[in-house]
Amino acid sequence: MHAITFDTLEFTEQLMTAGVPDEQAKGHAKALLAAMKQTELRMDELNDRRDKQSDERMSGLATKQDLKELDVKIETKIKELEYRMTIPLGLMLVAVAGMLFTALRYFPPTQPIVISSHQMPPITQGMERVPATIQPAIPRPMP
Q1: What is the pLDDT of residue 11?
Q2: Domain total in the chain
């Protein structure tokens, strides 16, 4: 609150010096003092309202500390989700590997097929490919 000082006696004397009658000068001084007080009260009300609105707007803004706390919460949630996802993915990997090994154990391939590049014939002039020779991986003994 900024109080404005107003010397009514000096104001009254200035009016009387200018030729305003004594009672009329005192009335002018009282009226001006009342108007100044009302203006000051109104200004205080406006300032209070402005401060309240400013506080309301500022209450919705995030501070640096709020952002740091949010960052920590997000990092914690991410680590928690990573941990929660690692276990199921690891279990799925073990399950798939177990199924693969089980399938290979009970359904082995009859004969592995190996295509060796040194046995492939060269490409002919017509750019036709000749099929590669298929051989078993384990050579059979000759009779």
Answers
A1: 81
A2: 2
